[in-house]
Amino acid sequence: MNKKFLIAISTYKEEENIIELIKKIRNEVNDITILIINDNSNDNTKNLIKELNDKNVIYLERPRKLGLGTAHKLSIFFAIKNNYDFLITMDADFSHDPIELKNFTKYLENYPFVIGSRYIEGGKCLMKGSRLIMSKVGNLVIKFFSGINCNEFTTSYRGFNIKKLINFHLKDVNEGGYSFFMGTLFEINKKKFVIKEIPIVFFDREKGVSKIPRLEIFRTLKNLMFYVFKK
User: Fold this and answer.
1) Where are the chain's structural domains?
2) CB 17 within 8 A of CB 41
3) Could you give the CA distance from residue 100 to residue 71 in angstroms, rounded to a whole number?
């Protein structure tokens, strides 16, 4: 692989998943660097990664729980500073299947931004109950009010072609929490970059505990209304 690829994974209390995830990533795309940004989990994550002794795994420990938005900003700062060509972000809980990484690497050669979509043909969301309903309705509402031709706004399984995203930076995304992922799409669209959706299957986590606050959907909708008003 001639181009430099970075996969960034933000973690908080994911010791049950992280090593197995790294190994599965290696099975799919072996010659790639993995960046772990850990929010001072106070669990065994750091020691497990140290024991793994993988020279292409970079571990960054933050002093406290600073949130997903700032972790993703850090990942793109890191990618730019270290001259990576491509950045792929994904969750640590196996909701994002590493088998899709080859599709991301393929499409990133030609597109500035690639997002794994649950809500296009070939995609699927395996969440259940109220979480599934909120996800489906939430993405439909965001699409309707934003006017952006995209069906997926809230998943963090996405890829950035650093060299094509001229004058784009995540520092311009002001939304926090999970609203950050929606805000990134707004900024991508504002700069008139093409958004390429590829189908993914989104799995519900089997190990560990979800960190999504129950009120996050309402915060996201509030931030959407601010966006629409400013627009």
Assistant:
1) 5-230
2) no
3) 22
User: For residue range 140-199, what is the model confidence (pLDDT) as tens digits?
Assistant: 999 998 999 999 999 999 999 999 998 887 777 877 667 889 899 999 999 999 999 999
Write out the two tokens for 17.
Answer: 């998943």
Res. 13: pLDDT tops 60? yes
Instruction: Express each pLDDT in 97-116 by its tens digit.
Output: 999 999 999 999 999 999 99
Considering the four listed CATH numbers 3.20.20.190, 3.30.420.40, 3.90.550.10, 3.30.470.20, the one that applies to the domain covering 5-230 is 3.90.550.10
Query: What is the DSSP pairing of strand 57-61 with strand 33-38?
Result: parallel
Residues 6+ apart with CB under 8 A from 179: 69, 216, 219, 220, 223
CA-nearest of 75, 74, 17 to 48 is 17
Average of pLDDT values for 205-214? 58
* Rounded-to-integer distance, Cα 221 and Cα 146, Å: 11
Q: Give yes or no for a contact between 28 and 3, defined as CB atoms under 8 angstroms apart.
A: no
Q: Which residues contact 178 (CB under 8 A, 6 or more apart)?
A: 68, 154, 212, 216, 219, 220
Dihedral sign (CA 132, 15, 34, 10):
positive
Tokens of 45: 């994550």
pTM assigned to the model: 0.91
